[in-house]
Amino acid sequence: MDGELIIRPVEQAVFFILALVALGLELWAVADCARHKANAFEATGKRTKAFWLALTGGAALVGVISLFASGGIFGTLGLFGLAAVVAASVYLADVRPAVKDAGRGGSRNMGPYGP
What is the per-residue pLDDT for 32? Predict the structure, then answer.
């Protein structure tokens, strides 16, 4: 019984820290998505800006709820929280580099001294 009194707060602290890191990742994805132009998304063939804003915005909303859930208010959102982190990670790992490259005019194979 005494072991449970020690483990429970540690477990809650770990879940809170993980939820905080996940929320930071999701907010980064939303902010990055919002700052790129809509035509850059279409030029790279990565769906539309509205789609990615809705997906990353929904992920950030789930992240906020998960942050409160780690404190025990709503219970755990395990699968939804995981799906939100995956959605934000897909944006940051796949869509962001392509859109960022398209915003600079694409990959022209130019170095600092020319082609």
Answer: 96
